[in-house]
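Help wanted!
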Amino acid sequence: MLIPLMLLTPLAFGLLLLLPAPALDDRNNTRMIALIGALATFVVSLRAAFTFDWSDTAAFQFVGSVNWVEAFGLTFSYGADSISLWLVLLTTFLTPLVVLGSFTALQGDVAGRHREFFMWLMVLEAAMIGTFIATDIIFFYICFEFTLVPMYFLIGIFGSMQRLRAARVFFLYTFTGSMLTFAGLLYVAWFAAQLNNGVWSFAIADLYAAARQMSPTQQGWVLATLLAGFAVKVPIFPVHTWLPLAHTEAPTAGSVILAGVLLKLGTYGLLRFALPMVPEAVVTFAPYIGVVAVIGILYTALICWVQKDIKKLIAYSSVSHLGFCVLGLFALNMMGVGGSILYMINHGLSTGALFLCVGMIYERFHTREMRQLNGLARAMPIWAFFMIFFCFASVALPGLNGFVSEFLTLIGAFNATQVLGPSYAVPAAFGMIFGAIYILYMAGKVVWGPLKVPTESHGEHDEDHAHGHEQVSDLNIREIATLVPLAAACLVLGFYPTPMLRSLEQPIDALTAPVRQTLAARAADPQPLHVEAPGFDTASLGVTASLEASR
Amino acid sequence: MMERITTLWPEIVVLIGACASMLLGLSPSVITRRATPWVVGITLVIAGIVTLGWPAGAVLGPMVDYVKLAVIGVGLLLLAVVAGVPDQLRAVIETDERQIAGRGFEPANTLRGEFYAFFLFSVAGVMITAGARDLVWLFLALELTSLPGYIMVATSRDRIQAQEAAVKYFFLGAMAAAVFLYGFTLIYGATGTTEFTGIRDAIVAQYTDTGSLHPLLIAGFALAIVGIAFKIAAAPMHGYVADVYQGANVAVSAFLAFVPKTSGFVALILLLGLIPNDIFASQQLPPALFWLIWIMAAATMTIGNVLGVLQNNIKRLLAYSSVAHSGYMLVPLIAGAVPTSGEPGGGGAAVLFYLVAYGLATLGAFAVLGCLQQRGEEAQTFSDISGLARRHPMLGAVLLLSVLSLIGLPPMVGFVGKVYLFKTAYDGTGGATAAIVLVVIAVINSAISAVYYLRIAAASFFGDGREAAQPIAAPARLTGAAIAAVVALILGLSASHLVDAARAAGYAARPPLARDTTPPVDMSKLITAPADEPR
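Answered by r_m:
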């Protein structure tokens, strides 16, 4: 019952906000209800984490099923393995923080529309959780697709200047891709039904087995349709162009959720569907996807360097970071995939936090232009501390969370000589350096140097922050409370990711088994994945030896 | 013969109701005249009860009952939407006012009776279409559906555009009727009978004897399909749609988008059911018809969606959306209405399901427009609905749900409909490349359609509402729209019953032969061994 509860709690609180009760017109009540709803969901997910059987993490637990359209074999069936559970925890962890961070975000024209705002946030949370826990492919698709609607309204109503265009581009771009995925998934289900005497099933487990029997050509086309939807969502390099616009125009809450969770739906989809369903095609096309990922890493890192808008810079950095994620995924080995999943979580934490930091600046000064902001550390030391902290987390400073995952994806790619290899990992590693350059360049401009804040516009929209040039208010308790949990999570995952990595081994092993078989069949070498970089003691980097041994 | 009549009780009820409302509409008492829509509503409810109580399925197969119940159910909502259309006509208002002022009654100027009676006649036409077992019967039933539509369009508004629309609709409709009648004649020429059973037997015999079908027969089917394309607003007969929907009262447009389309698709399913595609090695339609429907489907949805994107008038936009949805519904029919492999019920069932899904969604969208007025005219531009959701959350929510269902976004019923359509297209054709390409064209079209549906949602939610239209007091219309939207959501979340019903109905779309006594109900048998069914 934990999973339905996890899905229904945010939905119920979202609908509660729509009730025609005058008390809900008060901003304080609305945001408290949203916060309670988000926290309640978090508590439920924590409860799930504590009752989860961590010794058998590959098996789906808390499984259940509600019949939907029996004639088609459509069900709402759910369950969670450790990958799902970690991503659900990321979602339920971020949402209360986003709600807390958005207490004063609605200003100007939309100040009165807080009910809608928090309602859409809650609905979005339910949809995101649904995506991760679905074990029926159409249930997954429903939630995947439905995330577009709340996000569309969050951007379109509450975004900044070009919000209409951003909302439209975001929706249409991702919708077009995912419609092709829809055709592909239906095709796989049809294929499975053929093998099963015409009995249809959309259960992911059934489709895994059936899809592997497709011919390489069929697998290739199915991979193409999967990529059409998921690559847009990630986004992988040539189809990333919707992201900077959507991120920049979205309200802070939207950006955090978008970067924190929604982008992961793409990588999660690739991991959950592409790898186990169409291993032949994945192995064949992994090198090409790797090329695109590396181009994405380097190209968008260079774009970041020339940005003038902080938010846009972080948005582009997401594309670059997710390039690592995809690279690790298509390394197809334990380290690469494990690093990639870890990266999904870490990127959600650190980039989400960066967007929150930028949002706090935007609430105060109504600008995100780097040339209008300078030396904020002098006026806002607490903010500067967090900003620098999350910048470091984002550029993968050892000791913070980004490092472990970035390193693992690179090592994974380096070792995956059969599909990627050093010629991919080495250029990608330059992405780390570029990352450090553009983030520190931005931090140097905005955080240090002589104090400079825009004088004309700040403070006039919000009485809470009425202040002059000299008295820029630093973070208040609420804002600090928003950032501290994120910082703590970054530290914990930076120093001690072992439990999480260990819990991921079994499901990764299960998900990559078909790919390994394909690789083994293709190579004369019986153990193609065991190409160790000489002299590398991964255990000392906080990566368990069992990670290696488990293969 | 008596058996045949017993299947017609619901139609008889509806026709009696139509006559009654025609008389009531001429009543000298204003109050009685205004009560006419209630009579129509009661008639539909009784017809529904009769359909449930005395199902025709045993004689004619469950498709008849499915179509009757669907058209009665959606018809009740449509009635809520069109009720009040005559009350806005100048002639009707003046007549009522004259009479209330004591200056006598002019029966010639009150249009309520005709309007509501024609509504019922048209509904009866759809019901009779479903029961057709003969080409002549089918032709008459199709015309019974269409003819009242022409008059409803003409009398729905005081503006000259309405008459213009009606004339266009009438002449093109007459031409389409000629086309499909010609097709029917050729089918008759090739098989020597107008009776469905005979036609099917003749086709089987022809194919077994010669190994192919007579070109005359193929030409007959092709012409019939193209003619019926007019009823369903599919290419190449889609030209009238935008002008007619724009000219008619918006409530009547909602009616046009559902009722004639339903009769057209039912006729198409019956006709395609005449070709027992299981006799062919490929288990598909003859190539000529396969490609005809393939091209029609691809062209219809592409034309509908591309032209839809270009529209600035929401009525025209919804008209092209109606065209596009016909294109989607043609997709599973490439495999014939009743493929013998795979999905029981086949394309026919998917279409029957989608008709309801589409009917509910489009009804909601049109009805919301009907609830608004801009300077005495009905709302039809994007600026008219700008900011709607903020000023009238109820209308905004209904519009949003309708639009989401039209896009085919989960969890609305439109999504289940699309799953059904595309899955059947794969299933019926055995995953033929042509079918896959068509499905891909369809999903790309869905993406294109999102462009203009989102414009509606964006105008309603993001617009500033500076030149927005004002809502009118139309409680019935609003209720009808709200029910349609809520049902579209509920059916999306629990589609199982409707799918089962559509499945059984679609299976029985194959004309039940006099010689074919097996009751086609046992679904489990159908799934495992559909080819064993005796023919």
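OP: Thanks! One thing I noticed: Residues 511-535 of chain B have pLDDT under 50 and may be disordered.
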